Structures are given as C-alpha cells and as structure tokens.
Fold this protein.
Amino acid sequence: MAKDAVTIRVQSEDFDPGVETQRLHEADPTVGAVATFLGLVRAHPQEDGAVTTMTLEHYPGMTEKALAAIVDEARRRWPLTAVTVIHRVGPLAVGDRIVFVGCASSHRAAAFAACEFLMDYLKTRAPFWKKETTASGETRWVKARASDEERALRW
Amino acid sequence: MAKDAVTIRVQSEDFDPGVETQRLHEADPTVGAVATFLGLVRAHPQEDGAVTTMTLEHYPGMTEKALAAIVDEARRRWPLTAVTVIHRVGPLAVGDRIVFVGCASSHRAAAFAACEFLMDYLKTRAPFWKKETTASGETRWVKARASDEERALRW
Amino acid sequence: MALSIKYFARVRDALGTSGETLAWNATWQTVDDLRQALCARGGAWAETLSREEIHCARNQQIAAWNDPIADGDEIAFFPPVTGG
Amino acid sequence: MALSIKYFARVRDALGTSGETLAWNATWQTVDDLRQALCARGGAWAETLSREEIHCARNQQIAAWNDPIADGDEIAFFPPVTGG
C-alpha cells in the first residue's frame, strides 16, 4: 500500500462520507471491497437529561501519533489498499458526524475486520474525550465503557 | 424500526454511497453508528486473462424476496434503526459499484455485525450470478467460493 | 395446469433455453422427481442437471431436493450463486 | 531543563489548569514518582491523580506507571478516553 493511501485527519470541520468512500477505491482497480463506519452524536431518549451538544476534546500531537500507530497495526494484520480515519473535535450537535473509518481491500473479510478493529482501538487508545451538555445547560464528561475495553481486547 | 426504514433495490443504474449513507441516519436522531459495505468490480492482476467487463444476472421476483428475507433475519438478530441493500444487475466495468449494504443502529457492534452478516448471506443466498468477459472477448461464469459458504455458516 | 420451469446462468447457457412450460405429471412428488424427469432427456440435460452442481427454487424460495412439488409451481434450476 | 506537564478533560477541570512546567527532580525514576509528587500537593491533586482513575502518556505515547521518566519529557495525565 502506497503511503499516500493512508489518510488521517483530526479536524473541527465536517466531512463527506461519500467523498471519502470514493477516494478509498477510485485510484486502485484491484479494490473489490470498501467497509466504512460513521459515528454520529446521538440522542439518548431513555436517559435523564437530553443531550443537546457534545464537545470533543483531544491531545494535539499525541492524537495524530496514536491514530497513525493504530492504522499501522491494522495494515500489519490485513492486506489493505487504502485506509481513512477522520475524527472531529470541538462542539457538535445531535446528528452531527463525529468519526469516519474506511478500509479498502481486494476482499471483504479484510475490509470488514480492519474497519471494526480500527474503531475498537480508536475507542480505547486514541486521546479523545467527550463532554455532553444537557438541555438544562449542565455539562458532564462521558464515562468510558468497560464494553469498549472488552471489544478492543478481542483482537 | 419503521417499515420504510428498510430499502431494498435491484437495479441496473449506479447508486451513490454518500446519499445512501446519509439516508440511513438523517431521519432518526437515535442513530449513533452506520456501518456500510461497498462491493466493486475489481481487476485481477495476477490471473490469466484480465477482466474487462462483468455481467450480473439475477432471478427477477425471487431476488427481491431473498433479499427481504435476509434483511428480516438481520433485524431479528440485531437492533437496527435502518437497513439498505442495493445490488446492481446487467453489464458492469472494472471499478464499477456492484453492491451496497448499510446498517444503522444506536451502537456500533450491532451495525458492524448486521452489515457483515447481510453480505455473507447475500453472497450465498441471493440469486445473482456473475459472468466475466476477458480482454480477448472470452466469457466465463464466476465460480462460487467455498470460503463464502463457510463465512455464511458462522452466523 | 402446468409447471413453469426456469433456468439461469450457466445452466441456461448449457441447456440453450431460459425456461419452458411443462405439462403436470401426477407421479411427481418432489422437486427431485422433476429434476430426474428432465435428466432423462439425456445429453446436456443429464450432464447439467446433476444435483451436486445445481440448486433449485420452488415458487421463488430455495428448495431442498425432497421438497414437495405441486401443479402450478414455478420451479427454477441454477448454479451456486455468485453475487455481491 | 524541566518537565512539561499536561492535563486533559476531567483531570484538567478538577485541577483547574491545563498544564505546567515543572523543574526536574533527579530523584524521579518513573512516571509514577512524578504522579506521587503531584499527589503530595494534597486537595484536588491527591483526589484526582489516583492511578486507578487516570492514564498517563510520556512524550505523547501511552505510558505504564513504572515507565522511566527523564528530564525534558512531556508528561500528560488524563481520564480513560471516550472518543469515536
């Protein structure tokens, strides 16, 4: 995989999943499979205090290194022709895009596995933190979930 | 999941993965995760006789029923807010989109699992057949792969 | 009444026809009885309709070889699927 | 020389600072030695920098508590990550 087939971006701006999906395969005719994941700020209808906004904080400098290390590990494990990881930072509203991970490969098994692996590792090893603001204006840091750690340990 | 949150299309026209991804989440603020798969006609650089075109045949009537049954099974197994399956038929060239599967859910584990399940079942249970045309004009029916059957039996 | 028979992909190419209408025969009990009757035509029919190499659908649903058959059914024979 | 210390998210909010520059102390051998020195300030420092509830990075890489520390390092303390 050419070095330029890896895209890692940490940005406050929105991104376009359609454009990113197209970029993952258009340059390489051997790509037969593109698996993608899109994470969004979601409403929690059952929970106390509806979330209105979410603020994503990160550790500039370390974030990019951590994502690059995670992508390198995925490329070591699976034959990938292209990988894209985009993560937004700053204030976001319900329905906004947070994260995009896309993996292109000749075959679907590698594309699927690498995409899920990247999300599991990103969730537990990349220095991002979410702070929620409820309708009443209260803010709270999102707690890490043990289930995310368990998922990351599967690989 | 509302019935209209299921989209199943069998068509000769191309589709837009970006538009389909957006449709999977824009109507429902509880969606936190969208997993998608895009399958493309790929070049086989190592094999004898480069593929120039691919023709997708199907069994009209049965195809739609088979895809609906596969989607119903996915919805029975995982909590999904929306599912889209699009499969093209007719002549296609290297690099052309063949299939799109997208699953939306509150959480990523369900979205990933359902998306991969749908592809594995579609590959082994939906009546589509691929015929390749090589550069010399020769045509050959693509052979079913035992590995696809094995993957479908995992679920 | 009658049976509507359909052939797809490699099976259709080998038989040279995409389908036919066949008069109902009351001795047929399973889809495999129909398959054997078609094989009895010999030549490409016998070669192509080996049950190890093809699948069958009855009324647009995948069928097992010992599934019952009935007058008016739509029966299809085709190779293992390769979509996606 | 000196250490550059950074605090993120809930840790930063609890300590009321996003970071500081700290004079190097040659008795520190591991990142946990630094953590204990910060805890010795008492109050929010002792409450927040419990090693069960935070993670540490040394020079922008996740560190274990017994990893060595050196003059000039950038050390960060933060809660478990919650991105994605």
About this structure: The interface with chain C takes residues 108 of chain A (CB under 8 Å). The radius of gyration of chain A is 16 Å. The beta strands of chain A are 6-11, 33-40, 51-58, 82-88, 90-93, 97-105, 128-134, 139-141.
